Amino acid sequence: MLPTHKSLPDSAPLTANRLLEDWLAYIRTVHIRSIDMTLDRVRTVLQRLVVRLSFDIVAVAGTNGKGSCAAMLGAILHACGYKTAVYTSPHLVRFNERVRIAGIPVNDTDLCRAFQQIESARGDTPLTYFEFATLAAVLVFQQYAVDIAVMEVGMGGRLDAVNALPIDAALITNVELDHVRWLGGDREAIGREKAHIMRGERPSVYNDSQPPGAILDYAASVRTRLLVAGRDYRHESIGGRWRWFGPNGETWALEPPPMPGAVQIANAAGVLALLACWKKVRLERETAVQGLRDTRIRGRCEIVSYEPLVILDVAHNPSAVEILARQLAANPVTGKTTAVFGMLKDKDPAGIVRTVEGYVDTWCLATIRDERGTDAWELANLISGLVRGRVHCHASAKEAYKCALIRSCGDDRVVGFGSFYIAGDILDYMARLS
To answer: Can you give the pTM of this predicted structure?
Structure first.
């Protein structure tokens, strides 16, 4: 009999027929740590599962923009005629969002079946929640015989579970300071970790014009074909459109992606560059246009309501919040702005608050209910002296959001950011009201 989770309402074993919520509660308990970076466990369980992958894998790493780039890759590859899957993390509202085929989240039954296979195969090998999720995605993609899977790296690259898989093409969005406890305290150290998703004789893109030397050195050592933004491809904005100058001499005039912000055009340029140099894919302007038009991803400077204007963004480090700040500056409101803000403990609250403080009049701080989450009252102490507006503390994102709405009028603005948990909890609350 398989082990049961201590909080389950009865003693029935975990099987494929158990509810997905039970499985998700259980896999959080299998490993004593939520983050334990090594490839040994995933490789061991992969061998026991006897998985022989029949699909190609595009890995996406980087500090910011991974989810947007993964969504664009999935949509463009789908437009090219491939049966395409996308694996991203974390999710906003439902776990199923992490595992999508042709843009549609897979169902509970398929995920539970995959978890059952993993549980049966792992024996006494403890897997983290993310490792369980990654292996489940692989099994589901294999079950549905996808052609290409776009897989987002969770953290770093060298020791991330996705790096245990055979990678056929790699996109590194950028390298900024984040997760320094695990990845290192400077761009070179972090770049060295992310570089390891690149493979020899496989196409790779670094989608920023200033790559750390560690990225260039590793690419040279494994003999990957590395394209760098600004050197091997570039883009420019022209009015409401933009032009892409590709690595093979392409010059395409394109509509911007449906997500707001100049950063999404830069993301699209890197995505197109990777597909243009990957021999498996025949990229044409028409499929690029169609794929970008079809790209959908939530929580990226997303307007979810009006009067007051409500914007949700998953930005959770200073470089990502800087992009959000530019959006707020470019689109001012006549009223006041209230921030619904919460963070995980390993983030940089001072750096984030300094970046956006000039655009916020009132702060509604939210406790994030996770072992890595920061208590709202603790967060208030951390940012004390950095903010000029009033600060209100709340036990949840839902309560902080309700407070922000009460304090806002029709010409005001509410901005929820700081974590996926903030955006996800607000979206969940709004869905329950509708």
So the answer is: 0.92
